[in-house]
Amino acid sequence: MSSSKKALITGITGQDGSYLADSLLAKGYEIHGLVRRSSSSNRSRIDHLYRDPHLPSTRLFLHYGDLSDSSQLTELIYNIKPEEIYHLGAQSHVRVSFDLAEYTGDITGLGTTRILESVRRSGIKTKFYQASSSELYGSAPAPQNEHTPFQPRSPYAAAKVYAFWMVRNYRDGYGLFASNGILFNHESPRRGEAFVTRKITRGLADIIAKKEKKLYMGNLDARRDWGYAPEYVEAMWLMLQQERPDDYVIGTGETHSVREFLEEAFGYLNMDWKEYIALDPYYLRPTEVEELRADNTKAKKELNWSPKITFKDLVRIMVDYDLERDGLPCPGIGKKIVEKNHFPKN
């Protein structure tokens, strides 16, 4: 597909931002990414884009900025004039949000408002995607869809609820093309190591390499709807190709516990996870979300989107990556799944 469209991605150095950049560049987009200036580089997930000999360097641009600086965001958006904005940037770790509640509210909640207001003030015509989260639902009974009432159970979730409704208000009040993608948990080898799925596969590799003897975990009974991130960024793009803005739930429709993830990961290497796991109360949340499971009926019907990668495949992809990264032998089933489906190399 050829396109001359320009897209702005906040959070481009994160898991979703990097996969989205892969996808949009393949579609012919010119990409502008918002990155925070810091003393250390955090661009490992997009380094491969600069090394790709088939990618003209003039199609990927990074801009220093911060979601707390509204004037700078307005100037940036006005100067770039992107046809599409994908707002993925946030303080996105749920457990950390309990320790950094005010910061999470400022960046994850108000950060969205600042971008929406920047779009309104700049007067440009653009389509806006907001990265909403299944954490919005909290204690609401599963399965959850676009009509399920929100019951947030963390500062992160509360900030995302605020952001969700600001998107709706700017859509209804100012006529902005602004859509919420309520994405359920989606993982990959590019997932940060503080998140539970990557913590497990990274910890498993460390145990195999004899760097660690135990992996310390929190609530093993929490159940989540886990999918594969490269498939989910395609759903983001599809939302902005619709004639009208709307809100969509994106997920697999299946739920699995943290315990099941451990069983699948360790079992892939014929190991008994119980021999290597210890519980640590530090990793428990003050308020827990017991079960999240998507009803993706609307996305299937209106976006023609549905996931292909199964839970077992996802675990194997992640385990293979972390073993290979450390130079350890891996079964290779996950690697073959990535290659067969032509997903970006990790």
Any overview of this molecule?
The structure is a single chain. This protein has 346 residues and is an alpha/beta fold. The chain has twelve helices and 13 strands. Strands 3-2-1-4-5-6-11 form a seven-stranded parallel sheet, with helices on both faces. Helix 1 (15-26) links the parallel strand 1 (6-10) and strand 2 (30-35). The longest helix has 22 residues, at 101-122. The chain is globular and about 60 Å long. 47% of the residues are buried. The mean pLDDT is 93.
Key traits:
alpha/beta, UDP-galactose 4-epimerase, domain 1, 2 domains, seven-stranded parallel β-sheet, two-stranded parallel ribbon, 15% strand, globular
What is the topology?
Blueprint: E1 6-10, H1 15-26, E2 30-35, H2 47-51, E3 60-64, H3 70-80, E4 84-87, H4 94-99, H5 101-122, E5 127-133, H6 155-174, E6 177-183, E7 186-187, H7 196-208, E8 215-217, E9 223-224, E10 227-228, H8 229-239, E11 247-250, E12 256-257, H9 258-267, E13 277-279, H10 297-303, H11 311-325, H12 333-340
Parallel strand pairs: 1-2, 1-4, 2-3, 4-5, 5-6, 6-11, 7-10, 8-13
Antiparallel strand pairs: 9-12
